[in-house]
Amino acid sequence: MILSLATASLKNRRGSVLLTVFSIVISVSLLLSVEYIRGQVKESFTRTVSGVDLIVGGRTGQLNLLLYSVFRIGNPTTGIAWQSVEHLQNNPSVAWMIPIALGDAHKGFRVVGTDNRYFDHFKYGSKQSLTFAHGGAFSHDKSAVIGADVARELGYSIGDDIVVAHGLGDVSFKKHDSHPFTISGILAATGTPVDQAVYVTLQGLESVHEESGQQALRKPISRKHSIQHDSDHAEHDDHHTDTDTHTLSDVPPDKISAVMLGLNNRVAALQLQHQVNQYKQEPLMAILPGVALAQLWELMGNVEKLLLGISALILLSSLVGLTTMLLASMRERRQEIAVLRAIGAGPGTVLWLIQAEALLISSAGCVIAFIAVSATLYLSADWLSSTYGLFVSGTLFTPATAIVVVSVILATWLVSFIPALAAYRRALHSGLQHP
């Protein structure tokens, strides 16, 4: 009975009620979005690198090693000798490895020296592999692969030549003009730091740093020369030429910045980490990416709390608006309360009627907000993953969002006591003779 009376009363005041519902929809949508995306961002952040069991670098801080190897922020304090890398590769626990060399840049984007194992084994998100939007992996020592952001901002395409330089900012101090790289592939967007880097071969990067007097790697032959060479090779199948650059050399560099390891059994990660940290040939450090990412996320906890605080304040303002609307309607409802008292409704019934109206408004706002946010997240899932690296998975209905909705309903019930008590006191003295 109370619910039917509350519904009928709300219909008679549909204008102000709809505005109040709208304000609650906005505030609850913000609160649900922030709470849900907060969890998804944390999960996506901790999956910036996926499937890598250990990252090994020179002795430094755990976060510094994570930042320069995964996020391309900062610089390594020291390198790793290639002999140490081979020692790690020969460990029976290691299934694969990805070498990484840092130190150069191209027009503000970091240059990463690596090999084709990077494109084979590096994963992000829910163990998603890297894919090429155009072209493919390294085909020769002067090949380069660029991330999606690099291609978009600089307007590069397959076959363009690029020059790397010393310096990590937009201003470079020394350009290696005599050693250009040719773009062989453009990676598909991942929404991670992978999109903001230029990848070159370790051998090619080593060649641009060779001092004068050392033999540098040959430049890639032009397409015209390549056609002529193919023609000559077709005529002289038995003739060997040393001008063919369409192969990758296997000459290792002297040092690299870090190495990512994938293990045959993840249980061995802690044991191998201990072995690396105790390595006597040179000071090395191994970190577990998941642990380091969790530690880094803790440093960003204040931003997370700030977003939740802003959303909570917006919700509070909506509840204040709801209370104000119900209080303002009390003067208009004196006749209604008097009629209810005349037909036998007690003051308690009037109190519960006002609270039922508030709960109906709040519940309707929560339902609409839940549907709106769910639809928005579903429709924008692909865009969020490719643009921001936010991988929306599962449904909006989680324990965290359920707590949000229950909290909103409970807060509505509490604030509705203010107009409900005012109606209760009025009901005690109302009658038909006092409209």
Overall average residue pLDDT: 80
Percentage of β-strand residues: 15-25%
Q: Which ranges are low-confidence, i.e. pLDDT below 50, for 5 or more consecutive residues?
A: 211-245, 431-435
Distance between the termini: 24 Å
Specify the overall morphology.
elongated
Number of domains: 2
Q: Measured on Cα atoms, how large is the radius of gyration?
A: 32 Å
- Percentage of residues assigned to helices: 40-55%
Broad structural category: alpha+beta
Tell me about the largest β-sheet.
12 strands, mixed
How many distinct helices? 16
**Structure summary, number of beta strands:** 16
Q: Secondary-structure map with pairings?
A:
Blueprint: H1 2-12, H2 14-45, E1 54-58, H3 62-70, E2 80-81, H4 82-89, E3 94-106, E4 109-114, H5 117-121, E5 123-124, E6 128-129, E7 132-135, E8 143-146, H6 148-154, E9 161-162, E10 165-166, E11 174-175, E12 181-187, E13 197-201, H7 202-208, H8 223-235, E14 255-256, E15 258-263, H9 269-277, E16 284-287, H10 289-299, H11 301-332, H12 334-342, H13 347-379, H14 381-388, H15 399-415, H16 417-429
Parallel strand pairs: 4-13, 8-12
Antiparallel strand pairs: 1-15, 1-16, 2-14, 3-4, 3-10, 3-15, 5-6, 7-12, 8-13, 9-12, 10-11
Detailed description of the structure:
It is found in: Cell membrane. The chain crosses the membrane at residues 17-37, 306-329, 350-380, 400-424. Residues 18-208 form the MacB-like periplasmic core domain. It is a multi-pass membrane protein. Residues 310-425 form the ABC3 transporter permease C-terminal domain. With 435 residues, the protein is α+β, with helices and mostly antiparallel strands. It has 2 domains: 2-45 and 302-429, no CATH class; 54-234 and 243-287, no CATH class. The protein is built from 16 helices and 16 strands. The chain has helices at 2-12, 14-45, 62-70, 82-89, 117-121, 148-154, 202-208, 223-235, 269-277, 289-299, 301-332, 334-342, 347-379, 381-388, 399-415, 417-429; strands spanning 54-58, 80-81, 94-106, 109-114, 123-124, 128-129, 132-135, 143-146, 161-162, 165-166, 174-175, 181-187, 197-201, 255-256, 258-263, 284-287. The strands form 3 sheets. Strands 1, 3, 4, 7, 8, 9, 10, 11, 12, 13, 15 and 16 form a 12-stranded mixed beta sheet that branches. α2 (14-45) packs antiparallel against α11 (301-332), α11 (301-332) packs parallel to α16 and α13 (347-379) packs antiparallel against α15. The longest helix has 33 residues, at 347-379. The chain is elongated, with a radius of gyration of 32 Å. The two termini are 24 Å apart.
